[in-house]
Amino acid sequence: MYFENIDLDKLILRCYPDPVLRQPARPLTPDEISKNLIHLSERMIELMVKSAGIGLAAPQIGLPIRLIVVSVTGKIDDAFALINPELSNFQGVSEMEEGCLSVPGVHGKVKRSQVCQAKGLDLDGNELVIEAADLSATVLQHETDHLNATLFIDRLSTLGRFAARKGIKALENDYASQKRI
Ligand SMILES: [Zn+2]
User: Fold this and answer.
1) Which of 31, 110, 121, 123 has the fewest CB atoms within 10 Å, i.e. the most exposed one?
2) CA of 89 to the centre of ligand 1 (A)
3) Residue 122, Cβ neighbours under 10 Å: how many?
4) For residue 56, how far is its CA from the centre of ligand 1 (angstroms)?
5) Which residues are catalytic?
6) How many A from CA of 70 to the centre of ligand 1?
7) d(C-alpha 110, C-alpha 112), whole Å
8) 37-82: per-residue pLDDT in tens?
């Protein structure tokens, strides 16, 4: 398990266009799930809440594994982790203004299913089924997209993408200048 010995304090938010965000995440094995995902999830929740986010996927901290944390209220008490999430039972359409901790400064409207069901495992390895609607459904779809290497900016309309182009370009320039240092 390659993330077993990771120093959790060193895990930081990765921002677009970091290549890890474009790497499809792999499922966690039963052996990995039975071990110490609790500390990793706690660290993810801490980073999410501190950054005023309502969801975070493991690739956003550099780990291409299928683990997400969500708190639609943004509070630690409401946060939960979902391992190997699978979405189904999509219904309806909703369009919400989205942002992403990995794409700071960029926002835009994204059309998603209004309702969905998320199935996965909790930190004890028990099956967790969530019937989600509206904001919860949007967050679960946004975070699951991260596991499939998709960002919300990929889902913007042509007009939305045009409006976001300066912010996206600024992030690309920031990343390129960090790389040079
Ligand atoms: Zn995101």
Assistant:
1) 31
2) 22
3) 15
4) 6
5) 143
6) 11
7) 6
8) 999 999 999 999 999 999 999 999 999 999 999 999 999 999 999 9
